[in-house]
Write a sequence for this structure.
């Protein structure tokens, strides 16, 4: 080691044990940065591992490990009997950088796909900004009421006795016993006509929509979309290169006549007939038959997204559109995220029998199959009756929470908002009064700790009165009342 060699300058910073970063990593990063910033020149001879270890008071093995790592990565080179040197063939364009810039700060143009750019643009705007449900986020279930003890007990029992075959790759279409349970449940609860072979398990409804777009759509295909509509469906179809035809709604649901005027030869129609998102409309029987007739006449497809059909508070859940389809033109989509819990990431598609093979083969190149252990636990959860009991229990909870929200708004916010009782769903639309702008109000509400997506965020061409989406299922009555009080304070600041 040269007599005048300044070891602290060489290492750039003093090593410390009062950090979670290991000594190995500290030494490695200091040496690497010294080489990249050109403070250590070509051919510079490093001190021996013994000398360096003694100087900085660390184990020689630690220093040897650092040298070995840097040699393996091409920063250093070892010469038998001569020592360790900074590599001479290190790329000049990298070495001459005085300050190593992160890619995020780089001005270099970085090309990404058109699909990813579409996703980026769609996701920007008024999107969820918190992980924990708060007043009045939409689409969240009452996680505090989920029977986690029962779920854990089933999971423990099944994992203790799991066959080794279940640790291998499994059927792409999904766990057969789960598909059988889903088929039976949908037949009795939703009026869906299907065989077990038509059920395909997917990792949530969003993957289901992505799979549908890959199988049924080509670039520039036309897709009817309800306007307003679910953002995730728009993203899936736009990502496939489709062109969206935004069809307005009336009190009977999607206006098929208007859709025919806009684009009679569309390839696919996306609808939420049992409880339209976000308006909560129910598609009438005559409109359902009209839509099915259009699909059959034009060899088009209908995607029925039944995202929250289990939660109907008056009477039985409505029968699915798919149950009226005699020509196999409907692809039915359901999810367990809303009924049970979001991180389960399990949903399902019911596809026409002649499309099962192409759907399954396409899915095999996306994710092969959904997580099998969760499918096994869910199967037992349904078989033992816990699924049905949980749904019935949640209907009562959610009906009560909706009632609390409506009464609180009528008592505290009637000057600013109008809400009406809904026989189903997980959110209400609060219609703004006095000419208020829903986007302005939604942004202002965030400052008061309240998340209320503006209705206009989901609209494209259909100009509706200003409104706010008010989710109530994922928050307690106490939190609902607190959210209403914060909204009142917000409105008072702008009155």
């Amino acid at each position: 080691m040269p007599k005048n060699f300044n070891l602290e300058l060489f290492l750039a910073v003093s090593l410390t044990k009062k950090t979670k970063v290991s000594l190995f990593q500290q030494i490695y990063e200091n040496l690497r940065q010294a080489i990249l910033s050109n403070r250590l020149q070509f051919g510079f001879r490093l001190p021996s591992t013994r000398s360096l270890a003694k100087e900085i008071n660390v184990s020689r093995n630690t220093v040897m490990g650092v040298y070995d790592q840097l040699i393996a990565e091409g920063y250093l080179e070892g010469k038998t009997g001569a020592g360790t040197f900074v590599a001479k063939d290190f790329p000049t364009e990298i070495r001459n950088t005085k300050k190593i810039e992160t890619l995020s700060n780089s001005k270099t143009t970085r090309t990404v796909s058109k699909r990813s750019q579409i996703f980026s643009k769609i996701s920007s705007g008024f999107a969820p900004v918190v992980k924990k449900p708060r007043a009045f986020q939409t689409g969240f279930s009452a996680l505090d009421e989920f029977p986690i003890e029962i779920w854990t007990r089933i999971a423990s029992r099944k994992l203790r006795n799991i066959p080794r075959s279940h640790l291998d790759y499994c059927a792409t279409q999904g766990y057969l016993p789960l598909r059988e349970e889903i088929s039976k449940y949908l037949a009795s609860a939703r009026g869906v006509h299907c065989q077990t072979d038509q059920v395909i398990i997917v990792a949530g409804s969003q993957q289901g929509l992505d799979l549908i777009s890959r199988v049924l759509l080509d670039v520039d295909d036309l897709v009817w979309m309800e306007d307003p509509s679910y953002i995730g469906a728009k993203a899936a179809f736009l990502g496939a290169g489709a062109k969206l035809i935004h069809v307005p709604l009336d009190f009977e649901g999607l206006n098929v006549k208007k859709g025919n005027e806009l684009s009679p030869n569309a390839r696919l129609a996306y609808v939420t007939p049992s409880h339209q998102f976000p308006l909560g409309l129910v598609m009438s029987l005559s409109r359902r038959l009209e839509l099915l007739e259009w699909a059959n006449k034009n060899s088009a497809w209908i995607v029925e997204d039944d995202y929250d059909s289990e939660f109907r508070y008056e009477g039985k859940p409505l029968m699915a559109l798919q149950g009226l389809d005699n020509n196999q033109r409907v692809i039915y989509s359901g999810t367990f995220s809303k009924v049970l819990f979001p991180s389960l990431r399990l949903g399902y598609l019911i596809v026409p029998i002649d499309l099962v093979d192409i759907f399954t083969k396409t899915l095999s190149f996306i994710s092969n199959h959904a997580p099998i252990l969760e499918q096994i636990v869910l199967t037992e959860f349904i078989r033992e009756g816990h699924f049905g009991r949980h749904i019935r229990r949640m209907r009562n909870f959610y009906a009560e929470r909706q009632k609390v929200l409506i009464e609180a708004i009528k008592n505290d916010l009637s000057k600013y908002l109008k809400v009406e009782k809904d026989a189903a769903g997980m959110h209400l639309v609060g219609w703004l009064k006095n000419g208020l702008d829903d986007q302005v109000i939604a942004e202002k509400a965030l400052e008061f700790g309240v998340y209320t997506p503006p209705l206009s965020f989901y609209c494209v061409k259909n100009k509706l009165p200003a409104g706010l989406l008010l989710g109530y299922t994922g928050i307690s009555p106490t939190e609902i009342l607190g959210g209403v009080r914060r909204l009142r304070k917000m409105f008072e600041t702008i009155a």
